[in-house]
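[Meeting: bench + compute handoff]

Bench side (C.D.) handed over the final construct sequence. Compute side (W.E.) agreed to return the predicted structure before the next meeting so the bench team could plan truncations. Sequence as handed over:
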Amino acid sequence: MIYLPKLVIIGAGGFAREVAWLVEDINKDKKQWDLIGFIDENEANHGKVLNGYPVLGGFDFLTNKSINEQLYAVCAVGNSSARLKLTKKAIHCGLKFTNVIHPSVKISEHVKMGTGNIICAHSIISVNVFIGDHVSINPRCGIGHDVVIEDFSTLYWDINLSGNVRVNTGCEIGTKATLIPGITVGEWSIIGAGAVVVRDIPPHCTAVGVPAKPIKFHKDIHEQVE
């Protein structure tokens, strides 16, 4: 019998179910994970079975004495600040994070990345890219050469990051957004769906439009998550 490391998905929403599907595709390509279910703090979800996998409970599930081996995890929550909060709790509970990358992803051998990352189907990641920790990249994203994507950032569907773009910590880039070469997005900023970013975006703001412009600024996210 082949031993497979056990994996849990933090979250039980739509993205979490998509990540379960991603893990199934990984296992079809090559058996890697024993996906045992979801961890979710919403008690209304406890005991449900979602697409064949149980919602095991909240983080208190991890204190179950019957669990006598290391559990691996990914946090499948799209919102960057929520992912930061949940990841802190998971680390405190002793979970070990891993990367899950769909077999269809085209990724250069000259890419460096941390851990806890989710990279969905049909994305292309070019040369000399750096991806930090707990980054979520949805399907069909194109990431050009020398791009930097820092911790806890989220790229939604069908995004184009041109060469030498820098996405700082905690950013969310909306569906079908395009960033031209050399752009920097400040930490914890949000780029709206369909935006075209032709100038640097400051930290802690929401920017929308063609060309993208800040329309509002928000509090330092670290004040919200402590």
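W.E. noted at the follow-up: The helical segments are 14-29, 80-92, 221-225. C.D. will use this when planning the next construct.
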